[in-house]
Specification:
alpha/beta, TIM Barrel, 8-stranded parallel beta barrel, Pyridoxine-5'_phos_synth
Length: 254
């Protein structure tokens, strides 16, 4: 697999979080999306939450009209979000769990337990020509259910691995990385396109990027936070370079 096969999706949610802290129009998430494209992003991700705590409906309207990169709309499986997705028809929709009281997405969807609820949403999005992803934990059962529902893509939750790296828990990090490796391989064997995301930093991106079955990493909060210190352009370029370096090294070893 070539280095170009690993895409970077930049999540711009927290540009909107900063804007909403004070109100007004600045900083503008659409401008951030345009800058991300110039810095080497392959796609833009935005999560329209039920409570609109960061990205707004107006942001989605403007993103659809302003950017040329594929838009990945993260959303809960609700009738309101389905109607918005069908109206805009973004390149992709990633169904994620959502609870009002959470600060960030705390884990993957339990697709197995929620099959009867999720399946109709997956079907309607697929019928509309939208690529559908389910955000799940690295677990074979979740992958199999996602495939059975008709999802074309699965994004594996990398939070447990990244937390272990950040906290210096080497044994846990190794264990969680192996879970990701196994799930990525199993998902690909099922015919799913494999993505990964959540909590990825400069320190944790290399091992994730080196897993050959992954074709896209979605990274947001860390990039926006680092941009405060180093600028968005240079931060994205550094992440892109680390991803490419890890993928190139893993290809040479293989």
């Amino acid at each position: 697999m070539s280095t170009s096969s690993l895409r970077l999706g930049v999540n711009i949610d927290h540009v909107a979080t900063i804007r909403n802290a004070r109100g007004g129009q600045h900083p503008d998430p659409v401008r951030a999306a345009e800058m991300a494209a110039k810095a080497g992003a392959d796609g833009i991700t935005a999560h329209l939450r039920e409570d609109r705590r960061h990205i707004s409906d107006g942001d989605i309207d403007r993103l659809m009209g302003a950017i040329t990169l594929p838009l990945n709309l993260e959303m809960a499986a609700t009738d309101e979000m389905l109607a918005i997705a069908l109206r805009h028809r973004p390149h992709a929709c990633c169904l994620v769990p959502e609870r009002r009281e959470e600060l960030t997405t705390e884990g993957g969807l339990d697709a197995a337990a929620q099959h009867n609820h999720l399946a109709p949403y997956v079907g309607q999005l697929v019928d509309a020509g939208i690529r559908v992803s389910l955000f799940v934990n690295p677990d074979r059962i979740q992958l199999a259910v996602a495939k059975a529902m008709g999802a074309q893509v699965v994004e594996l939750h990398t939070g447990a691995f990244c937390d272990a790296v950040n906290e210096g828990r080497a044994e846990d990090a190794a264990s969680e990385l192996e879970r990701l490796r196994i799930a990525a391989r199993e998902g690909r064997e099922m015919g799913l396109e494999m993505h990964a995301g959540h909590g990825i930093t400069f320190e944790s991106v290399g091992p994730v990027a080196s897993i050959p079955e992954f074709v896209e990493l979605n990274i947001g909060h860390f990039l926006i936070g680092e941009a405060i210190f180093g600028g968005l352009d240079s931060t994205i370029r550094r992440m892109r370079a680390l991803m490419d370096q890890a993928r190139s090294s893993s290809t040479q070893i293989a």
